[in-house]
Design goal:
heterotrimer; A: alpha/beta; about 15% strand; globular; B: alpha/beta; Rossmann fold; seven-stranded mixed sheet; six-stranded mixed sheet; 16 strands
Chain lengths: ~325, ~400, ~100
């Protein structure tokens, strides 16, 4: 059901007006992840099949007997979105090859949260990307197992408090640095890898459209602010995404055939991470020393990306 | 005309599957299934089978991929054994719950621990409640025939359930047997293209794998149970059709000299052929022995079992898997339960045999009969025994 | 499908729980969740459409004259539109 279909937008004229994820979904108030999914669907268009992992996006959109999805969509289990997407891609390829379905190009997309991509979903994703299926995989990273109650994942940033790695008298939350999934995808030889955030909607849409045009594997890591899990006001979802990018906590960049390109949205001088932490309850416990360690690591990680953009050449 | 060949059964299964116009296969190797996967990939590589062949990175992904592909309307196949099947376990009820036709060949192999690559039924027995149609074969010809039939059963509009064909690993898969590969024209006539119930295609977008709250879940489970139970009707029709087209008859419970037998034995899988030789030997020495062979495991063939045992005084159920700490081997428990209300039911004895590839000879089968002959049929023996286990 | 006469029986539910009506989730009006609501001041609105872009529900609609408002059947009152509106044309008011 499309509520907004018949108007022209002044600035975002490039955005497809069709809503392929209907309202009525049960995402939390102010969920930036569902916003990202909504925008992704606009970029993908109707000739898409989505294979989703178990998680927030699956649960809020597919309560039988209704669905919010207006594109073909399949959910099977938690850890296998990439394998299901690979199967869909192979099935469509086989049917098309034998003339059993028409030969229109259908983009197959696998999507999962940070858990379903980087933890339990890692094997299936690695396999699918290695085999070179023509599919886009999008990780909607809200930095914890949000659907099951905010438990830590390998996507949880250092210092964040989650329900299984909470801040307490002898612990300051997540001990390890966020797993660098985009790098892992680049290491798989994925021809197009990008980080994105719905706070930069046109950039995100452009990246999805770029991935859609790749005939082969592609990967987008989408930073998804979760006001519920991060304990910030629901109205701040877009603002937090912006701060994450501007402070270098989540830099926006693309890697096309090994050539790194930092987004023009990145500021010349990064904002201090404490500005980003301020409004979020999950970082409230962090002391100055801890913030200093994180600040230093954010800067050095960002510098690595800048260096790669400067020195690494595209693959042959 | 149909080719009569001497072929390794696993290779023949791949040939048979290759005759079924599959659109996609996803496999992960595991002994003793690997020859099925390898030969199928050769057929694809040589252009003899036009299908997408995906060499996935685990069995869990193999099942995931065929579920996804089946959702697009493709005809799909996978195969596995033992640990691979156990790894797929999570997805089996999902495949049947989503009512997706999938055919899986299982080269039955023992489940760890300890690791054992040889044949028994401990891999398939834990999948009993998964909602899959489950068939057992005894020889290479049956493996070929049932692999082809499985697609038709799975895709039937009144079934729409995944089907597994159980083929004893090594004991059967690695044996070279004389068999007939059916004529391709007849297979094409028997097996028309799949007409999917719903497809993942933008021309008609659907949502597959929705989640259900408690208001719908029970109804979903009831619908699945009814579908599995009713599939027996379709299976019998398809076996009828097969008999007319190919001349080979299949029944849910096969019998061998069982009609007037006082003591019956039940086997599943390839051991049936060895047991037949034991029956002949026993009959020769005057024992009223007979054999029933369970071919259809799920849906469970209640009527056929009851009919087969109705005049027997004793029934020896052989199981090739253990239900630890439970009421006996899986087949034994189910048959006992099936016969509970019967006015006449035989005394049932349970021997766990052939675990981890341990050979069960004609002598062993005769020994089992000799053991139960002196038992008083009126006195229930409510226990199960590991046949031939070394005890201090 | 099951709207009129209550919950479906096991014979009536779709095989395999497949949902054939795309976007049928819109039957459920998430607007009932709302504790506050956005109000547009058309005098300040520059019709950039960013409120439309950033709405997680996709429920911000443009009227004939090009101004925007939220479809209150679905608006959850998250406040993103008001927070992101550059000219500060949107205010959040409490629901009564």
């Amino acid at each position: 059901m499309n509520i907004v279909e018949n108007f022209d937008l002044y600035a975002p004229r490039l955005i497809n007006k069709k809503e392929l994820l209907s309202a009525g979904h049960r995402a939390c108030t102010g969920c930036a992840e569902v916003l990202a999914v909504r925008l992704m669907c606009k970029a993908l268009g109707e000739n898409t099949v989505i294979a989703s992992a178990t998680g927030c996006m699956e649960i809020v959109s597919s309560m039988y007997p209704t669905t919010a999805w207006e594109v073909p969509w399949i959910h099977v289990a938690f850890e296998n979105a990439a394998a299901v997407a690979a199967g869909v891609e192979a099935g469509l390829k086989g049917l098309r090859k034998k003339g059993k379905i028409d030969d229109r190009y259908i983009k197959v997309v696998g999507m999962a949260g940070d858990g379903g991509t980087m933890d339990i979903g890692m094997q299936a994703l690695s396999g699918a990307m290695e085999r070179g299926h023509d599919m886009l995989f999008v990780c909607f990273d809200n930095e914890a197992y949000m659907n099951t109650g905010i438990q830590r994942s390998s996507g949880t940033p250092m210092g964040a408090s989650t329900t299984t790695a909470p801040a307490g008298k002898v612990s300051s939350g997540q001990k390890t640095w966020k797993k660098n999934m985009p790098e892992i995808m680049v290491a798989h030889g994925v021809p197009y890898v990008a980080t994105a955030c719905p706070s930069y909607p046109l950039d995100f849409i452009r990246k999805v459209e770029k991935a859609k045009s790749i005939k082969g594997p592609s990967y987008i890591h989408c930073f998804s602010v979760c006001p519920t899990g991060w304990r910030c006001g629901s109205h701040l979802a877009i603002a937090m995404g912006r701060l994450a990018v501007e402070s270098g906590v989540f830099p926006l960049y693309e890697v096309e055939n090994g050539k790194y390109k930092v987004s023009s949205e990145m500021p010349k001088k990064l904002k201090p991470v404490k500005d980003y932490f301020k409004a979020q309850g999950r970082f409230r416990h962090l002391g100055e020393e801890e913030i200093k360690i994180i600040q230093h690591k954010v800067e050095s990680e960002y510098q690595k990306i800048l260096d790669k953009a400067k020195y690494l050449k595209a693959w042959d | 005309m149909a080719k009569r060949v001497g072929m390794e059964v696993a290779v023949a299964v791949a040939e048979a599957v290759g005759q079924c116009d599959i659109d996609m296969a996803a496999v992960y190797p595991i002994t003793p299934q690997s020859h099925i996967a390898e030969h199928l990939s050769e057929l694809v590589a040589d252009g003899k089978v036009n299908a997408e062949f995906v060499t996935v990175e685990s069995e869990h992904s193999a099942m995931s991929a065929v579920i996804g592909a089946s959702g697009t309307g493709a005809r799909v196949y996978t195969a596995t054994s033992s640990q691979g099947l156990m790894l797929m376990h999570e997805l089996l009820p999902i495949a049947s719950g989503m009512r997706l036709p999938i055919v899986m060949g299982i080269a039955n192999r023992a489940v760890s621990s300890p690791l054992n690559i040889l044949n028994d039924h401990s891999d398939i027995m834990p999948q009993r409640d998964s909602g899959w149609i489950s068939l057992f074969v005894e020889n290479g010809q049956e493996a070929v025939d049932l692999s082809i039939q499985a697609f038709k059963i799975a895709e039937h509009k009144d079934v729409l359930l995944p089907v597994c064909v159980n083929i004893d690993g090594f004991q059967l898969t690695h044996m070279v047997e004389p068999l007939e590969l059916p004529d391709q024209e007849l297979v094409d006539k028997f097996l028309p293209p799949r007409v999917p119930y719903a497809t993942l295609h933008p021309s008609k977008p659907v949502t597959m794998g929705a989640f259900a709250m408690s208001d719908y879940f029970t109804e979903m489970m009831k619908a699945k149970d009814e579908a599995l139970k009713n599939s027996k009707k379709v299976i019998l029709e398809i076996w009828d059709e097969w008999a007319k087209m190919f001349g080979r008859v299949y029944k849910p419970v096969e019998t061998y000299k069982a009609e007037d037998a006082e003591i019956l034995m039940l086997t599943m899988g390839s051991m049936g052929e060895t047991a037949e030789m034991a029956i002949d030997a026993l009959r020769a020495k005057g024992v009223s022995a007979g054999l029933i062979k369970l071919r259809l495991w799920r849906p469970f063939p209640f009527e056929e079992i009851k009919a087969a045992v109705k005049s027997a005084k004793k029934l020896i159920v052989t199981d090739r898997a253990v239900s630890f700490g439970g009421p006996g081997g899986p087949a034994f428990s189910e048959i006992k339960s099936a016969l509970y209300h019967e006015a006449h039911r035989p005394a049932i004895y349970n021997y766990i045999i052939g675990l981890g590839g341990r050979d069960v000879t004609v002598k062993d089968f005769i020994g089992m009969f000799d053991k139960v002959i002196p038992y008083d049929a009126e006195k229930a023996v409510d226990t199960y025994e590991f046949w031939g286990v070394r005890e201090s | 499908m099951t709207k009129k006469k209550g919950l479906a029986t096991w014979q009536e539910i779709t095989t395999g729980c497949v949902v054939f009506e795309p976007g049928s989730a819109s039957e459920y009006h998430t607007g009932s969740w709302r504790a506050q609501r956005p109000v547009w001041n058309d005098a300040k609105c520059i019709k950039c459409g960013i409120c439309y872009v950033f709405c997680p529900e996709g429920c911000v609609q443009q009227s004939e004259d090009g101004f925007f408002k939220a479809n209150l059947d679905y608006c959850k009152g998250c406040g993103i539109c008001a927070h992101e509106c550059w000219p500060r044309a949107i205010t959040i008011v409490e629901e009564k």
